[in-house]
Write a structure and sequence with these properties.
The chain is of the alpha/beta class and 349 residues long. The chain contains eleven helices and nine strands. Helix 4 crosses helix 5 and helix 8 crosses helix 9.
Amino acid sequence: MSAKGENRFDSTEASPWMRPFVPRRFLSNGHLQTIVGSVLPRTYSLPEPERQLIEVEAASSARAASFVLCHCHWQPAEVRGERLTVVIVHGLEGSSTSPYVLGNSARAWKAGCNVVRMNMRSCGAGKDLSPTIYHAGRSEDVTAVMAEIACTHLIRSFALVGYSMGGNLVLKLAGELGAAVPPYLKAVVGVSPLMDLVASSAAVHEPQNLLYATRFLADLIKHIRHQAELYPDLYSVEGLNKIRTLRQFDEEIVARYGGFAGADDYHRRAASSNWVQDITVPTLILQALDDPFIRMTPETRAKIVANARIRLVETRHGGHCAFLSPDHGDEGFWAERTLLDFLLMTVEG
């Protein structure tokens, strides 16, 4: 597809799962797509999940073990191990109940897949289960989830789907694994992935993005206050009221409690753009060029395009994690249908 068209699709071969994205009427603005996509009411058809706690960091002399909570939707036991298991990872201050997580889950379940809705550390219904906090670099947690579920449920094939920060996690993991990817990991998808943290951190502080930055910061401050209530020996609320920007939060909180030298060190080390050239598993990246605050540098884009295992789809419109379309065939959620078609055709042929 031409870069001058509605979508830019970097691929060397025709792909039947790819359909052009056209925004819903009156939603050709990235901010409108983002905001409407986050508040649009939806209904979901899913069976009751099985809760599974998975240890992601062992206990030490200083603190208890850290666990993440996964909500699992299984196909019948006789076919469970043979079916594709889709692990879905939410974004910043999201959870296993975020609308995009539930929307993808319902769609994948209906298609016959097992679904694992993963909460990051100290997020969602698992917020009281981890003395350590989540951040954009904890790709090892996704490894732990896959390994435990593969063992306990004899799963033979996994696909990872991550949105925003979750997209960074799954892409970072795929690159870190490189040629040593486990045989059960079959495909990876990043939707509006936060791959270049330095560039995107600068973008979210631009004046037009004040609404998002303010909301994210308020949620993060609330999050760390809760951690301090649970673990007063590990966290301090001193100085929290003086934090005015997300960068300050990364400097004072994430770096301090996440083991980084500072915000710059965190943004550099946690970025999946460092490893994207090493990805060997089939991968899809969906990115809107009008995303209000996610930025992909030319260097990262060049590494992606040079990697034959990655399909990069850049749409002119779509906002952040929204991609709201008028197409009744995908129920108006283009990214969800596109990524599932990619997974099914890639993994199951």
